[in-house]
Every structure is written in structure tokens, then in C-alpha cells.
Amino acid sequence: MTTKRIAAELTDDTAIQAEIIYTTTRLNTEPKKDADKLFCELAITAIEKAIQSCKEATGVQFPSYQQLIDFLTKETQGTPKQDAVTIRSFSMDVDSYQAEKDITA
User: CB atoms < 10 A from the CB of 53, how many?
Assistant: First the structure.
């Protein structure tokens, strides 16, 4: 059996993101050692899928860390869901501004 020990200290936003993932996937209900193992398995599976998607989209057979980060960042920018949220927020702000303008007029 092959083993790989991973030790990492997450800080700031990354630590918060990890806690959110632990909670939403209910890993926080598992014993810490089991939860950390499951978290790593989940991360590795997601990374493998991201590498495959990056390969297919860019043609780079072995993308580097930076190429993968750039690909993932680009993939999440400008998605229809995000655009809809931005538009909805913008229209809400306009409505609020209009309501304030009517009240003060």
C-alpha cells in the first residue's frame, strides 16, 4: 500500500473556505482524522477533474499549478449565474436609489 502524509496549516480566507466546505459537506460531524482524510480525497477528486477540463480546453498535457489556477479563475468569471446576480444587484441598487430620490424630492 502506498501512503502520502499531507500536513498544511490554512490561514485567513483559505481557512474560512475550508470550514465552509467542511460544514456544507457535513465533514464537521466526523472525527477530525477521518474528516481530514475525506476532505483530501474530495480535493484530489476535484483537482483531477479540473486538470482534465484544463487539458481539454487548453491542449496542455500537464498543466502547471499556475496554469490550472488561471484556468479555474477564468472558468468562474463571467458565468451566466454570476452575471445574473450582478444584474439583479444593480437593478436593486437602482430601485433603492430611485426610492430614496422620490422620498427626498
Answer: 15
Measuring CA to CA, which residue among 47, 46, 70 is closest to residue 58? 70
Q: Which domain holds residue 81?
A: 64-105
Report how far residue 69's alpha carbon sits from residue 48's, in angstroms, rounded to the nearest whole number: 13
In contact, 60 and 67? CB cutoff 8 Å: yes
Residue 9: strand, helix, or coil: coil
pTM of the predicted model as reported, rounded to 2 decimal places: 0.63
97 and 55 share a domain?
Answer: no
| Model confidence pLDDT, tens digit, residues 53-68 | 999 999 999 999 999 9
What whole-number percentage of the chain has pLDDT above 70? Answer: 70
The domain total for the chain is 2
Angle in degrees, 0-180, between the axes of helices 32-58 and 65-76, rounded to the nearest 10: 80
Domain identity same for 101 and 57: no
Question: Beta-carbon neighbour count of residue 56 at 10 Å?
Answer: 9
Same domain (yes/no): 74, 102: yes
